[in-house]
Amino acid sequence: MIARPERRPGNAESGFTLIELMIALVLFALISVAGLALVDSVLGVQGRTEARLDRLAELQRTMLVVTSDVEQVANGDIAGGGDRLTFTRAAPGLGGASVAVTYLLRDGVLTRSVGGRTQALLTGVNGARWRFFGDSWANQWPVSADGEDAAAAWPRAIALEVTVAPGRGPAGALRRVILLPARATAVTS
């Protein structure tokens, strides 16, 4: 019987070579870089999605406030044209008198003024236009300046057309049409 030599710890077959270790480190580095790129991509998508959702919430909040104000129009004149609308709004729940409301586009921001206090409603606005429906759509109200009767008349509906600038959310034209309540008339007997 032939005796085989015993393996010793210093033998060449007992571990990894330097080249094998380098290849393993390079593979680990490549997997780490790919994982980091994936995480960065996911975080970027999440950030853009959050910005779009914030913008959509701002647009919805603006349209809700405009709709609420116009639906609560009180006795008084309605005047507007271009990027401006002024009317009197009832103050339910406040127990007070009606308040004057003005919408105006100022430096790319749609603003709302109530009782002298101004609030920024929507930023990043390229244009805003109020339109009024009486017998047909008109770009200003009152349609004609034929005395007190024209100023005292109300349109049946008011439309807000907003052009939103591209950027952190949806861009383009938005339109909200709001029906006005019937105006109370005095009954004479």
Helix count from the secondary structure assignment: 2
Mean pLDDT: 83
Largest sheet descriptor: 6 strands, antiparallel
The strands making up the biggest β-sheet line up spatially as 5-4-3-2-1-8
- The beta-strand count equals 10
Helical fraction:
25-40%
Q: Could you tell me the radius of gyration in angstroms?
A: 34 Å
Q: Helix- and strand-based class? A: alpha+beta
- Low-pLDDT residue intervals, each spanning 5 or more residues: none
Please tell me about this protein's structure.
The chain has 189 residues and is α+β, with helices and mostly antiparallel strands. The chain has one domain. Helix content is 31%, strand content 31%. It contains 2 helices and 10 strands. The strands form 2 sheets. It has a 6-stranded antiparallel β-sheet with strand order 5-4-3-2-1-8, with helices on one face. Strands 7-6-9-10 form a 4-stranded antiparallel β-sheet, with helices on one face. Strand 6 (125-133) and strand 7 form a beta hairpin. It is rod-shaped. The N and C termini lie far apart (136 Å). The model has no long low-confidence stretch (mean pLDDT 83).
